[in-house]
Every structure is written in C-alpha cells, then in structure tokens.
Design a protein that fits this description.
The complex is a heterodimer of chains A (121) and B (169).
Chain A lengths: L1 H15 L2 H12 L2 E2 H7 L4 H13 L3 E6 L2 E6 L1 H44 L1
Antiparallel strand pairs in A: 1-3, 2-3
Helix pairs in contact in A: 1-4, 3-4
Chain B lengths: L16 E6 L2 E8 L3 H9 L1 H7 L11 E4 L6 E8 L2 E13 L3 E6 L7 E10 L2 E9 L3 H5 L1 H4 L8 H9 L6
Antiparallel strand pairs in B: 1-2, 2-8, 3-4, 4-5, 5-6, 6-7, 7-8
The chains are: A mainly alpha (121), B alpha+beta (169).
Chain lengths: 121, 169
Amino acid sequence: MVQSCQARFDASFGALSDATRRGVLEQLGRADASITALAERFHMTLTGMKKHVGVLEQAGLVSTEKVGRVRTCKLGLRALEEEAAWIESYRRLWAARFDELDIVVEELKRKERENGRKKRK
Amino acid sequence: MDVRSESEATPTRNSTAVERKSECELVVTRTVNAPARLVFEAWTKAELFRRWWVPKSYGLTLLSCEMDVRVGGQYRLVFPHGDSTMEFFGTYLEVTPYSRLVWTNEEGDSGETVTTVTFEENAGKTLLVLHDRYPSKEALDSGATAALPEALDQLDELLASLGSTTEAK
C-alpha cells in the first residue's frame, strides 16, 4: 500500500515540481480551459503547453477531451483526491501534535495541583 | 509515561478538524482539556513546545528550538535534513497572554505565511483555533511538503508513518 502510494506521489510531485504546471492546475481548479487558452494565459507556445499538459495528464492530475478542433483540459480525479489527501495528511499531523500537547498539558495540570497542595500546607 | 492522576478518568481524545476556509486559508480546531493559561504555556515555552510540535510518531528530532515569545521576537526551529539541516523561522507579531498568538513563517520562498492561534477557555477547557494564511493559493497547495519538515525525498518515511497508524503511539 505504501509502495503504490509512493509511486503515485512520485508521479504527482514530479508533475507538480514545475511552477507552470502548478499554475495550470490552479487555473483548471477555477474552470476548464483549452490548451490554446492555457498557452496564452502562461505566455507559452502551444507545443510547450501541450508538453506540460501531457505530464499532468500522465500523472492523472488533468484529463483532456477533444471536441472538434479544441482540446479541453479539466482537473483529473487524482488532482481532487490529492487535495483531499493533502488536507488529511495535514490533519493527521495536527492530530498527532495535539495528542502530544495533551500529554504536556496534563503534566502541567498535575504540577500545578501538586504546587497548590504544597502551598496550602 | 502515563501522566494521568488516579482521580481522573481516562481523558477522551478530542478530535482535530481542518477546514480550507478559502484559497489561501486553512483552519485547524481542537479542544484541549485544560485552562487556557496552561495551554498557552505549552505554546510559548520552548522546552514544552518542542516536546509536542514534532510528534514522536513522525520519527523526527528537533535539533534546536529557540523562541523569543514577545512582539517582534523571533523563533527558529532546526531539523536534521540529510547531511544538512532545515530551518523554520519567523517573527511573533502579536502575543496576548492566554488568548492569542500571531507569528510569521518566513522560511518559504513564496512569501510569508501568517499563523494566528486563539485560545478560548470555556468551563476549564480550551478551544484552540489555528488559522494559517498563505501568501497565495499556490503556496498553500505546495504546503503538502512545507507543512511538514520532510523534504520530498523523505516522503516515503512520512507515508510509512501515516500508513501504520496503529504504531502511531
């Protein structure tokens, strides 16, 4: 399970290691767009943008569909899953931190009670 | 290791919620079973903070943790990273005892993230609300790695630890 996750992450992070590709995902998160529109938006040749979209498509982050002469790009299921997974990994980090925080705070509470007892004596 | 006293029932673990409030904001909430005064102490004293900020289950050690908790004061956390180190640092913008902390995260190369933590006490418990405002949506999205002191090449370790939740404690 970890192995397959790792392969997925390798592909995704490879695809995400480029600022333009991250920008494309961000753009597609707002609305679907044609490769031509994306190329214009990122001041890039059509060929250059096709390459980027190809990498994102391979990673499952984007899916494309050709209707007539226009190839439309939209976020792939994986991109949406990644976001959910990202939030979940962030939540787990915080949950783990807070569990440790509980231990520290319990210790402070105990110390305070002990000090309180001493003071009363 | 067990710090519960005999008079207390087993504390139930409170749940942690994360919500993406907007393109650039993440909010984490959690209740802690203690007065705000003590929770605040655990957030502002380096020797306490370093004990929980890096969960043991993540298998990382903090090399150093310096915190000068006052307005304009700096903090710096140093983690081992391969043969070198990775540093997280920033400045405290607001320090209101027992109720509010605001600091910047200045290590990123895409601008500052500002973290606001509020401590709301109610009936002896404290609701913690942690609000991260990233400089851009892109910075938040790439936070998958920035939020954790792991670099991409250490992601497998992270996944291994996430995958084995039974060993997490």
